[in-house]
């Protein structure tokens, strides 16, 4: 995984509550065995009409947010089934950070395990960001080390994160990488118990 510390980008305002994992990546796209290639299916049924024509009213189809790395959504993001494909699709599309007032627990944990920073801000702060982002492109700077979200005009929001996950993201470690940090101890244990 790539280390995350500072992410600066125009935010993509997804002003929807209870976005479930089937909306993030629909079941018909789960046949791939790789972790890559899912980004083109992110929010597929919102991005495209039934006949395959691009839905110009959906935020991801707005050119102003084309290179965005920060997705801002509303409450209960990632609810529904526990499919890990949801964070794969988000990351493959290009988002490194998802900000919402609340996340489904399994989705929240899957984000960390796949190199995405999920940030919880309170509902009022989210609504403020969504309002700013919907009226015109609005940039944010995320600093994981300082645990801050800073807006264009300098307003700063603070967030909490479990120290374990913070270290994992700052170092670009997944759980296997973390295990390798103890390789010498593991080898010594195996010698003693051979």
Question: Which helices and strands appear, and what pairs or packs with what?
Answer:
Blueprint: E1 6-14, H1 21-24, H2 44-47, E2 70-73, H3 85-93, E3 97-100, H4 105-113, E4 117-120, H5 123-135, E5 139-143, E6 148-151, E7 156-158, H6 163-171, H7 175-180, H8 183-192
Parallel strand pairs: 1-2, 2-3, 3-4
Antiparallel strand pairs: 1-5, 5-6, 6-7
Protein model, in words:
The structure is a single chain. By secondary structure, the protein is an alpha/beta fold. The protein has helices at residues 21-24, 44-47, 85-93, 105-113, 123-135, 163-171, 175-180, 183-192, and strands at residues 6-14, 70-73, 97-100, 117-120, 139-143, 148-151, 156-158. It has a 7-stranded mixed beta sheet with strand order 4-3-2-1-5-6-7. Strand 2, helix 3 (85-93) and strand 3 (97-100) form a beta-alpha-beta unit. The longest helix is centred in the middle third of the chain and has 13 residues, at 123-135. The two termini are 33 Å apart. 30% of the residues are buried. The model has no long low-confidence stretch (mean pLDDT 93). Its EC number is 4.2.1.33. GO terms for molecular function: 3-isopropylmalate dehydratase activity. Pathway: Amino-acid biosynthesis; L-leucine biosynthesis; L-leucine from 3-methyl-2-oxobutanoate: step 2/4. Catalyzes the isomerization between 2-isopropylmalate and 3-isopropylmalate, via the formation of 2-isopropylmaleate.
Features:
Aconitase, domain 4; alpha/beta; 8 helices; seven-stranded mixed beta sheet; 194 residues
Brief synopsis:
One of its GO terms (biological process) is L-leucine biosynthetic process. The protein is α/β, with parallel strands linked by helices.
